[in-house]
Amino acid sequence: MTAANPCSVSVVMATYNGRGYVAQQLGSVLSQLLPGDELIVVDDGSQDGTPELAEALNSPLVRVVRNPRNLGVLATFERGILMAHGDIVFLCDQDDVWLPGKRAAFVAAFEADPRVLVVVSDAELIDAEGEVTAPSFMRLRGGFHGGVWSTLVKNRYLGCAMALRRELLAVALPIPSTVPMHDMWFGALASVVGRVHYLALPLIQYRRHGGNVSPARAQGWWRILRWRAMLLKLLTLRLLAHSTGRHFFDTTPPPPKK
């Protein structure tokens, strides 16, 4: 990735009955994309016209695909990632808002250090009406700490505020079906096999409301312990495989769509 050959960006957005907010999010993302970028919307069985709204944009940068049945968050994101062509893959929720400069700041961080496999930023928290309820997600989490052990204690990775370098996919895919969340999986792996770069500036508005797919309430301690134990086991197995030179995913971009 050089000035003569700048990196391309894929944004993978998972949707499910998100018509109430998705138009604002689509607009905030598309306003920052460049020619050669793409926005892949993977719909997980919406019944409210969400995919039709995305298709109505008629943008050459937007590709809408529909799951054959409801597959859940992990499988939906994985399907979109497998379709992505970009050097950098952004993860994107349907109900948030990208703040100005997000694409540029993330790409600059990747270009500055080829060892960086994940970039994550801070986020403002907003409510259903778009009012800011907290200026910093990471401050509420005690600051960003992205190492494996820190993640096992308290996860600071927020998928909608993350982007991945394509090279990470050789290690990270497929996403184990029993991993607690995809953001923890990508972040923890990247912290071991490469580097994670944190941008302290909020570059997204992270919306919390009653319809979020990810849980807003604190989970029970036993469930948290089971999740963390499972994550540690899965990380260990994947890293052992990686140390032997085994790759699960070919990082060559898929052929262009016809």
Explain the overall architecture.
- 34% of the residues lie in helices and 22% in strands.
- The chain contains 9 helices and 9 strands.
- Strands 1, 2, 3, 4, 5, 6, 7, 8 and 9 form a 9-stranded mixed sheet that branches.
- Helix 1 links the parallel strand 1 and strand 2 (38-43).
- The radius of gyration is 17 Å and the shape is globular.
Task: Jot down its keywords.
single chain; Spore Coat Polysaccharide Biosynthesis Protein SpsA, Chain A; 34% helix; 9 helices; 9 strands; 258 residues; alpha/beta
Contiguous low-pLDDT stretches (5 residues minimum) are: none
Global mean pLDDT: 92
What percent of residues adopt helix (DSSP H or I)? 25-40%
CATH architecture label: Alpha-Beta Complex
Number of helices: 9
CATH topology group: Spore Coat Polysaccharide Biosynthesis Protein SpsA, Chain A
